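Hi support team,

I submitted a single chain yesterday and got back a structure, but I'm not sure I'm reading the token output correctly. Could someone confirm the output below corresponds to the sequence I sent? I've pasted both exactly as they appear in my results page.

Thanks,
R.
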Amino acid sequence: MASAVGVDDYALSRVPSGARYSWWSVAVQRFGQISALSQFLLGATLGFGMGFWQAFLALTLGAVILEVVAVFVGVIGVREGLSTSMLARWTGFGRAGSAVIGLAIGISLIGWFGIQSAVSAQGLASLVGVLPEWGWSLVFGLLVTAIVLWVRVDGLDRVHHGAGVPHPGRLVDHQ
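Hi R., thanks for writing in. Yes, this is the structure output for that exact sequence:
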């Protein structure tokens, strides 16, 4: 099913073997998420509110629980060639349940977009000045939106090729 931009991302069908990314490509994307602003914010929040070992334990347990679930869902997704939404649909949640899961993911992403825009705006207003925080938030939000639209034109190929910026492990990926 082709989208309006012309990229078939197989949202509602199995991904053919030839269109799948290698394990290493997906792993590098996941490793790159470690350098996401939300992870720094989470670490700072826990570090400020807890002692070192409490924060370390909370982060470690949370990460392990999340990754165990993500690995199992990922293994099923790879074997079946299905997206998260399609996995949810065919594992008992049905069409409405998978829509609720998609809605929850979308709301979560919008929330993090807002938080990252606000944190970036505070930093830029303090560092550069020139604009008030709301102005930097608007500039940052528009810049990120433009990047997302640019990536959307070619799908994940552009994300794959740009992954080396936050994560140097991408540099050894020769695909």
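A quick pointer for reading it: The mean pLDDT is 77. Let us know if anything else looks off.

Best,
Support desk
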